[in-house]
Specification:
Length: about 270
């Protein structure tokens, strides 16, 4: 992964192939593959994120060819997994729901859940309710303005936390009902307490990584493998804020927002993608 580009820098696909000059803004976070090679011109510098760690390429060096290491330490394997998961969003988006947080067919981190939905076609009030797959109602709230597009409810999070504490493996549904009686719903699962503890431990390890891009990619990796698709989209947005013209990050963020169904944000990002 290209983490940073300063001055003239070049990429070639294989030995003897023509070289491409890299753009310092648009090519940040570009994926690299075994067999490709990079070098920099006078005054240039490349910072690469590799499974073996951070590599800086300077003008005094010849073409640096990417190779696959024979063995990896546990820490290197963790970084390699994060690099592989970059740009990969699992699952498929459910159709027809206004809701995108929680995302359909995803996992939810109970203490971090915020309800969000797409702009309504018609103005009016909506109601929300949380139910188990078997129909047990856990939480309701009515009389909200559909145009708000967001509800940060501590009561809803407490209902999820209580359900999590009971240890049930049953899936949950969040159901939105508009003023005309039409309903939209998403189905999701809660992370167990053990899974939350493991996640928090892994995120704390990634917080020790000095490079902000690699640190964010680590968070994306942990969220992706647990199907926390809303957190994946938020993490990509955090990375995009660091490199707003990165074509690779724009494409990955669009995919992540499309996966959860945030249609308005997908439209905004597409306008920025060259």
């Amino acid at each position: 992964m290209i983490l940073e580009i300063t001055g003239p820098a070049f990429l070639r696909s294989s030995e003897g192939a023509p070289s491409l000059q890299l753009d310092p803004k648009r090519d940040v976070m570009r994926k690299l593959f075994v067999g490709q090679a990079v070098r920099v011109g006078p005054g240039g510098r490349l910072k690469l994120g590799l499974s073996i760690g951070i590599k800086e390429v300077r003008p005094s060096e010849p073409w640096y060819v990417l190779t696959a290491p024979a063995t990896l330490t546990d820490e290197q394997a963790r970084i390699a997994a994060a690099l592989r998961r970059y740009g990969t969003v699992g699952g498929t988006r459910g159709l027809g729901s206004w809701l995108y947080s929680p995302a359909d067919d995803s996992s939810v981190w109970p203490s971090h859940m915020v309800i969000r939905w797409n702009p309504p076609v018609k103005p009016g009030q909506i109601g929300l309710r949380l139910e188990t797959e078997g129909g047990q109602r856990l939480w309701t709230q009515d009389g909200m303005d559909a145009a708000a597009q967001k509800l940060d409810s501590s009561a809803a999070r407490k209902a999820l936390a209580d359900f999590q504490a009971a240890g049930s493996q049953e899936s949950l549904m969040l159901i939105m009902k508009d003023s005309e009686g039409q309903e939209s719903r998403v189905t999701f699962f809660l992370l167990s307490r053990a899974s939350v503890q493991e996640l928090e431990k892994e995120l704390a390890r990634w917080d020790q990584v000095a490079d902000p891009m690699l640190r964010t990619l680590g968070r994306v990796s942990e969220f992706t493998r647990r199907r926390l698709f809303v957190e994946v989209a938020d993490a990509y947005e955090a990375a995009l804020a660091l490199a707003p013209e990165s074509q690779a990050l724009l494409a990955s963020t669009i995919d992540a927002q499309r996966r959860i169904g945030n249609h308005a944000r997908v439209g905004e990002l597409r306008k920025r993608l060259g």
